[in-house]
Amino acid sequence: MRIARFVHPGGMSFGVVEGDPEAGAQALTVRAINGHPFGELDLTEQRFALADVRLLSPILPSKVIGVGRNYADHAAEHGAEVPKEPLLFLKPSTSVIGPHDIIRLPEQSHQVEHEAELAVVIGATGARRVDRAGAEKAIFGYTIANDVTARDLQKSDGQWTRAKGFDSFCPLGPWIDTAVDVTDAEVRCEVNEEVRQLGRTSQMVFDVPTLVSYVSHVMTLLPGDVILSGTPAGVSPLAAKDVVSVRIQGLGELRNPVAAR
């Protein structure tokens, strides 16, 4: 099941996306639900063509937890070692934007880069100090993320809060898929149709259940919280007027234009 959050003539709703994504947006519809998507869905009779609505970020998390250097090739391209345990950082909820929203380049940075990532969305039960089995039960679904990073600030600051935390630095979307198999999915990033990143989720140093369990032993994960699972090699700078596209096999495409602030 694919869960989206969208704006329609009557307001804003969560909804179930129906149809085959491979056939293109024109073939898809979204059926609104009452309330939140966690738990038993209360489907309405409101159905819209996906092309006629505006998709928002599929969830508004209380926190976004990033995982650094979770692909060995990405660690290597920065001359860094693969960590012995997951390397965690936080992105503020105010960094979250949706599909087609603008990534704004801050004036403080001269090297803003894309990072294509699989994002894990926590379900209704949340997660606190869970084992691998509990972690798997806590996962609601998956979406696509772009962990936009001011690389020069990351290097100069010595910690990552400012570099990762600017408004618009966490595009999410286009929807949450609750059934997709992401154990060996292709992760691709293109900038202006040029391939910059290409990897597979099977190349992660720490797999998804390990990450969810590990994070849950540090902080309580609330429903809707998002974990970014790391990025493969190939990160590179973005410039104003670029269009960056992140595709993950089975999840669709997250596309965002870039502009100066």
TrEMBL record:
First-tier enzyme category under EC:
hydrolase
Which Gene3D superfamilies does the entry mention?
Answer: FAH, Fumarylacetoacetase-like, C-terminal domain
Keyword check for Hydrolase: yes
Looking up Pfam families in the UniProt record yields: FAA_hydrolase (PF01557), Rv2993c-like_N (PF10370)
- Name under which the protein is recorded: Fumarylacetoacetate hydrolase family protein
Ranges for domain Fumarylacetoacetase-like C-terminal come to: 63-258
Keyword annotations of the record: Hydrolase, Metal-binding
Q: What does the record give as EC number?
A: 3.7.-.-
